[in-house]
Write a structure and sequence with these properties.
Layout (H helix, E strand, L loop, with lengths): L1 H30 L1 H96 L4 H46 L4 H12 L2
């Protein structure tokens, strides 16, 4: 039994020595540069991860702002384009209306002058040709009817000529208004806006 006790005491001493050596190694490990360097690297890695997260968040914000600015710029260009087209349409309609009014005025002036001459002929026929005045009146009546018909045909022809031209002009302006804004236009506008 003595041998057994001796053996236990020897194992206990070895265990105590091993525990002391283990504690020494732990202290040495904790005091070594590797542990300190590892902790420093962990802190740096955390800082880099935070900087990356911040950069990604800023990139997302900038991307959103860029998309919003692009949309606003596209809408502004489209509004300006539609405003220019509206003004152009008004100017063209005014031009065609004034041209048409000029043509109608010339027709009306011609009609008035011709009717005055026919009326003057009526008077002369009554004065000068008492016997043949009936035949002359009939001829002047025919002339007056032909004049009215001719003027009416000219006005209709003028209207008929104006309508397709005005319709084509409106159609082309509508087509242009329906076109989108090209990437090239947006880039040119961004370049001009950015250089101001």
């Amino acid at each position: 039994m003595e041998h057994f006790k001796e053996r236990l005491r020897s194992i206990k001493e070895q265990q105590d020595a091993l525990a002391a050596e283990y504690q020494g190694l732990v202290k040495a490990y904790e005091g070594s540069d590797l542990v300190n360097e590892n902790e420093l690297l962990k802190r740096k890695a955390a800082a880099v991860e935070q900087a990356l997260a911040d950069a990604e968040a800023q990139q997302a914000r900038l991307k959103q702002e860029n998309a919003e600015l692009r949309t606003a710029l596209t809408e502004q260009i489209l509004d300006e384009k539609l405003g220019i087209l509206k003004l152009s349409r008004q100017k063209l309609h005014t031009y065609f209306a004034s041209q048409s009014a000029g043509q109608h005025n010339r027709l009306t002036a011609f009609e008035v002058r011709t009717r005055q001459r026919i009326t003057e002929m009526y008077r002369k026929a009554d004065r000068l040709l008492s016997g043949d005045s009936e035949e002359i009146r009939r001829m002047l009546d025919e002339l007056s009817v032909r004049l009215s018909e001719g003027i009416h045909r000219q006005r209709e022809a003028l209207r008929a000529a104006e309508q397709p031209l005005a319709a084509e002009m409106d159609s082309r302006l509508d087509d242009f208004a329906a076109e989108g804004i090209s990437e090239e236009t947006i880039q040119r506008r961004r370049g001009r806006t950015g250089s101001r």
